[in-house]
Design brief:
- This protein is an alpha/beta fold and 184 residues long.
- It has one domain: Dihydrofolate Reductase, subunit A (3-Layer(aba) Sandwich), CATH 3.40.430.
- It has helices spanning 31-35, 38-46, 54-59, 101-112, 123-131, and strands spanning 5-12, 16-18, 47-53, 72-76, 93-97, 116-120, 137-143, 151-152, 164-171, 176-182.
- The longest helix has 12 residues, at 101-112.
């Protein structure tokens, strides 16, 4: 079975993926606890490659030592960074893709084999994937916080409406996880 493209995102109950200052801190108050959740463990188990936006890459400062996804990672960017990425190993390899989202997804699918391609990062990469029709499933973790303002994930989609079929809802003290299949 070919790789599925799974768009994963965390947002506040009022629909923001960062606050008015661009910070995601309130959405991830306890990263150690997040790493222990069943949802993240399952994503790690089923993911064969990751497509990431450049801002998400830059937020880590180029240091992915101990990063949870030990897979090839394809970073969508206009220009590759000048410095080497820290934390690379025989499984975790970074590839900087400058020729668009379709190329990044195609390369990630080839690397993932029969596992999923996880799309992580910000609203821009998510919208690019959705607008290009490249997403098979959407997973949204809704955190119990109201940010009041910030960046919304699903604003300004060029292809709306997109029909979704609910797959699962999982609740934990950290979040309510909603999982949908994109109906084609």
């Amino acid at each position: 079975m070919p790789a599925k493209v799974v768009l994963g995102m965390t947002m506040s109950l009022d629909g923001f993926i960062n606050d008015r200052d661009g910070s995601v801190e309130r959405l991830y108050p306890d990263l150690a606890a997040l790493r222990e959740t069943a949802a993240l463990r399952e994503a790690i188990r089923t993911t064969g490659a990751v497509v990431m936006g450049r801002r998400a890459y830059d937020m880590a400062g180029g240091d992915f030592t101990g990063y949870e996804f030990q897979t090839p990672i394809f970073v969508l960017t206009h220009q590759a960074p000048q410095t080497a990425t820290r934390g690379e190993n025989d499984k975790l390899k970074f590839h900087f893709v400058t020729d668009g989202i379709a190329s990044a997804i195609a390369r990630a699918k080839a690397a993932a084999g029969d596992k999923d391609v996880a799309v992580i990062g910000g609203a821009s990469i998510a919208r690019q994937c959705l607008n290009a029709g490249l997403v098979d499933e959407i997973e949204v973790a809704i955190r119990p916080v109201l940010l009041g303002a910030g960046l919304r994930l699903f604003e300004r989609l060029e292809v709306a409406p997109i029909a979704l079929e609910p797959i699962a809802v999982t609740e934990s003290p950290l979040a309510t996880d909603l999982h949908f299949r994109v109906v084609r």
